[in-house]
Amino acid sequence: MIGKTFAEIANYVAVAAGKPLTFISCCFLILVWAASGPIFGFSDTWQLIINTSTTIITFLMVFLIQNTQNRDGVAIQAKLDELLRVSEAKNAFIGIEHLPEEEVEKFRAQCEAAAKEAGKLLEDRAARRSKTRRSTSKPTKAKARA
Q1: Cα three-residue angle 33-20-14, rounded to 5 degrees
Q2: How many contiguous H segments (helices) and E segments (strands) does the chain have?
Q3: What residue segments make up the domains of the chain, in order of their start?
C-alpha cells in the first residue's frame, strides 16, 4: 500500500517538476528572492533562506526522480522480456511503469518463468529431432553404399 502511494506521489512530482510552468515559477521565486536582497540588507538570514530551500528541494527530488527512473527501468526491461518471449505482446504490460515496483517485479518474474519453460520445450524438441535424425540417417548411409 505504501509503495503504491509513494509511486503515485513520485509520478505526480516528477511530471510536475518537468513542466515549463514549474521552471518559470522557480525562476520567478529566485528573482523575487534576489530583488528582496536590498530590503533585508543581503543578510545571512536572507542567504540562508535560499540555501536551505534549494537544499531541501534538491534532496527530496533526488529520491523521487531516482524512484521514477528505477520503476521505468524495471518496467522497460519487463516489456522487452515480454516482446522477446512472444510474438504478440500482452496488453497487460502496457502502462506497468505506473505500478509499484513490487507489482512490476511480479510481471518480470512471470516472464522469466515462461522463458525458462519455453527454453526447456526447445531443448526437448531439439533432443528429439537429433534422435530422429540419427536413427533415420543410418539406413540412408547403408543405401548409399549398396
Answers
A1: 95
A2: 4, 0
A3: 2-145
